[in-house]
Amino acid sequence: MPEEGLAEAFGVTEAARAKINLALHVTGQRADGYHLLDMLVTFADCGDRLGFLPAQADAFTLSGRFGETLAGDGGTNLVLRARDLLREAVGVLAFPVHIHLEKNLPVASGIGGGSADAAATLRGLMRLWGMSLPVETVAGLALKLGADVPMCFESRPLIARGIGEKIEAVPDLPAFAMVLANPLKGVSTPEVFRRLATKNNPALNLAADLAGTAGWLAAIGAARNDLEPPARELVPEISAISAMLHAEGALLTRMSGSGATCFGIFSNIAAAQQAAAALHDARPDWYFQATETVSGGM
Ligand SMILES: C[C@@](CO)(OP(=O)(O)O)[C@H](O)COP(=O)(O)OP(=O)(O)OC[C@H]1O[C@@H](n2ccc(N)nc2=O)[C@H](O)[C@@H]1O
Ligand SMILES: Nc1ncnc2c1ncn2[C@@H]1O[C@H](COP(=O)(O)OP(=O)(O)O)[C@@H](O)[C@H]1O
């Protein structure tokens, strides 16, 4: 991801990559209400950026297209929650820090911006404060911040089960050229889960020997996002945006997470960029971003 100025000003920088749920099957529900999921997840070469700098007192600043959206959220930003949780775990080593968040991803959009920011804060502050914690300790802190935070901490292709905390790397997943598309209508994740008609859907069953982009595309195409029907009820623009991606030549389109962001997979990055430009011309008030996802081999 391009550094865009943060690198010079802040000694430690971290990328918070957009999370893409290539498939999301809801397979059950726990006694505490959280849903059991089977997810195939990858990460995009675009997202938010964070900078970390030692300071006299803690500070938090925002920039980027969607920075304003989060400006009035007091102490509730996931970046600050991650900072405070990590500080509690490490004690005196945790000197004051100025954190800057360049907010490029739309908020409440199913691509895990807040979760990726929280995960990047854990990574960045461990570097700034010069510490390494046991993997299980970091995983525990991440999960306290949200179900998606452990996988955003990994930021590489993976299958996640449980509520998102049981993670298995997928080293064979290829990179994809994509357009991310969002009508800039925030979606409430709990509301989408509440509207699910069926909680016990068939599990995600991927063949063990999937190979090449065509093989993976066919397997992803046969999978689902079970949250897409209830999200489409809440935000009818999801159907329109999905149709627009198809019309621009996407090989496969699907909604990510609880929406409303949809992704379209294209044959190459030039085709994705061309489609994003055409879509932007049609709806300059919406969000369209061409990107490549990371491959399992990275
Ligand atoms: C749906 C997913 C798929 O990746 O992504 P997003 O749409 O948020 O990007 C995630 O599971 C979202 O994870 P995250 O956004 O971290 O969720 P949390 O803050 O832990 O939970 C928010 C709320 O969503 C519901 N929730 C979340 C995760 C889960 N496995 N079951 C649930 O029922 C619960 O109502 C919970 O109170
Ligand atoms: N750094 C952050 N970025 C985005 N949203 C945040 C952040 N901190 C707190 N939030 C809150 O978390 C909620 C979910 O946001 P987000 O992570 O963008 O959703 P999603 O996982 O659906 O993409 C929003 O309602 C927002 O107000």
UniProtKB/TrEMBL annotation:
Residues the record marks as active site: 19, 148
Specify whether Transmembrane helix is a keyword of the entry: no
Q: Which InterPro entries match?
A: GHMP_kinase_C_dom, GHMP_kinase_C_sf, GHMP_kinase_N_dom, IspE, Ribosomal_Su5_D2-typ_SF, Ribsml_uS5_D2-typ_fold_subgr
Q: Which residues bind ATP?
A: 106-116
Q: Which Pfam families match?
A: GHMP_kinases_C, GHMP_kinases_N
Q: Where is the GHMP kinase C-terminal domain?
A: 222-281
Q: Give one GO biological process term.
A: isopentenyl diphosphate biosynthetic process, methylerythritol 4-phosphate pathway
Q: Which reactions fall under this protein's catalytic activity? A: 4-CDP-2-C-methyl-D-erythritol + ATP = 4-CDP-2-C-methyl-D-erythritol 2-phosphate + ADP + H(+)
Q: Which UniProt keywords apply?
A: ATP-binding, Isoprene biosynthesis, Kinase, Nucleotide-binding, Transferase
- What EC identifiers does the entry list? 2.7.1.148
Q: Name one GO molecular function term.
A: ATP binding
Q: Which residues form the GHMP kinase N-terminal domain?
A: 77-153
User: What pathway does this protein act in?
Assistant: Isoprenoid biosynthesis; isopentenyl diphosphate biosynthesis via DXP pathway; isopentenyl diphosphate from 1-deoxy-D-xylulose 5-phosphate: step 3/6
Q: Which family does it belong to?
A: Belongs to the GHMP kinase family. IspE subfamily.
User: Do you know which HAMAP family this protein is assigned to?
Assistant: IspE
Instruction: Return the protein name.
Output: 4-diphosphocytidyl-2-C-methyl-D-erythritol kinase
Starting at the broadest rank, the lineage of the source organism is: Bacteria, Pseudomonadati, Pseudomonadota, Alphaproteobacteria, Hyphomicrobiales
Name of the gene this protein is made from: ispE
